[in-house]
Amino acid sequence: MVSKLPIFSALFSLAFAKPMARSMKVREARESLPAGYVRTGAAAVDTELQLRIALVQNNPEGLIDALYDVSTPTSSSYGQHLSKEEVEKFVAPAAQTSETVNAWLDQAGVNATPISPAGDWLSITVPVGQANELFDADFAVYTHSETGKQTIRTMSYSIPSELEGHIDLVHPTITFPSSISLRPVVSTPSGLERRGIDPLASCSTSAVTPACVQSLYGIPATKATQSSNQLGVSGFIEQFANQADLTTFLNTLRPDLKGATFALQTLDGGSNPQSGSEAGIEANLDIQYTVGVASGVPVTFISVGENFNDGDLDGFLDIINFLLGESNPPQVLTTSYGNNENEISRSLANNLCNAYAQLGARGTSILFASGDGGVSGSQSQSCSKFVPTFPSGCPFMTSVGATQLTSSSGGETAASFSSGGFSNYFGTPSYQATAVSSYLSSLGSTDNGKFNTSGRAYPDVAAIGVNVEIVVNGQAETVDGTSCASPIFASTIALINDALIAAGKSPLGFLNPFLYANPGAFNDITSGDNAGCNTNGFPAGKGWDPVTGLGTPNFAALKAAAGV
Length: 564
What we know:
Structural class: alpha/beta
CATH class of the largest domain: Alpha Beta
Distance between the termini: 58 Å
Low-confidence stretches: 1-21, 190-197
GO molecular function, one term: serine-type endopeptidase activity
CATH architecture of the largest domain: 3-Layer(aba) Sandwich
Number of strands: 25
EC number: 3.4.14.10
Oligomer: single chain
CATH topology of the largest domain: Rossmann fold
Function: Secreted tripeptidyl-peptidase which degrades proteins at acidic pHs and is involved in virulence.
Helix content: 25-40%
Strand content: 15-25%
Catalytic activity: Release of an N-terminal tripeptide from a polypeptide
Number of helices: 14
Cofactor: Ca(2+)
Shape: globular
């Protein structure tokens, strides 16, 4: 007790001192406002802010080492995924960190609530005036000129110097809500007439069905057998998955799966109403092409509500912490939403990426759609330099690009909208270094200076993503997007996991070291590009490329590579 007195005495004076009178260190700052935002006035001092504090983790480097150890096929520990408790030992903050930060907040009269299983994230609610004092910040109202949406943010914030090494970041502070964040990366081709569904036994350039996907990639129609094998589907921004639409879809296009359904989990006030008028294009797409392709694999729709700040990235964090809190999280998680990397702070990106590493170390394959803006980001936009997407730049998840059919015989080319490129936040991981170096050598000086040649490259893989047939509110329509590709590739992995579990083996978990070690297990896509930023973007080519990654799945080859 005596040894702790000097710490708490210092913290007492720290909490009540005025910020300019104490030693403060800038933790994060941004030089300019995001495009479209203008400051419209000071925030009212009594407006309450919900802030999240990320505490410095105990041993994040050890977690990454452990992740690679259990995910690299040549490792003696391959497939020996970590338990919930083992992961938490790496990321739980040191006792001194928790005590120091909580004592500081307590002395300031602020209640903190842990919001992650390991206690490395805290949530606080404070009025603007107190937030400005605590973090030497200037929270103000900013308005997005196009959407009119208002948000309260600051251009910089600081923490007491005594808390350096204990507080990693405070959110949301300098990360602004994106006008295109958490948008379904999916679009209906213009001029398409809604029509009745025709059962299609083979591929057509005008409509892709589950039968087409099975034919393209050799995916079996036989039902999975392992009930412990789970496939999770993320749902955001009040996109709801409709059971009646799934029934119509299956009755026509997968009658052998007639009666199949999906489970539901909710968080952050999420729900899944079943009115046909509330059926979401994105949610229906994701459910119909997981249930309809991963035959017999139990599928869960995880609906994330909007009880978080401004509909921004908190939902991405919350769903991972939600799953990390489970004893048995799903073996595969597919998400068809994303952001532009430059719209979020590096610290926030690092923390989210670390959360994916935690779930990957426990044996979950995390897949995200790469985006629909080619080299211009998540959605098409004007730009002078290429815009990486997030979380595709994170090295601990699998990014999925899109292809389209060139003929009904099954030829594929890159979809022009398939987002791909190189992260400005994360370096090239070792598992893809050789493949990326080879591509860059072949590219030469094309678009030199428009992208980071030493960044983590994406996408990793691809799947069909143009003219994919779905049912919404009882009617058929076709949609485009990398959001079609992610659930299709996720279904492929879920079926391989079923075979692995049936053979008494571990699921694949974090995929990338396995995928890049087996480039021959893909259909190499060598034509097309992903235009944007007034360029043709990157060309697809032999081997890995930043449009379609390693290519589209060859189910038999991938299954054989997995040892089943």
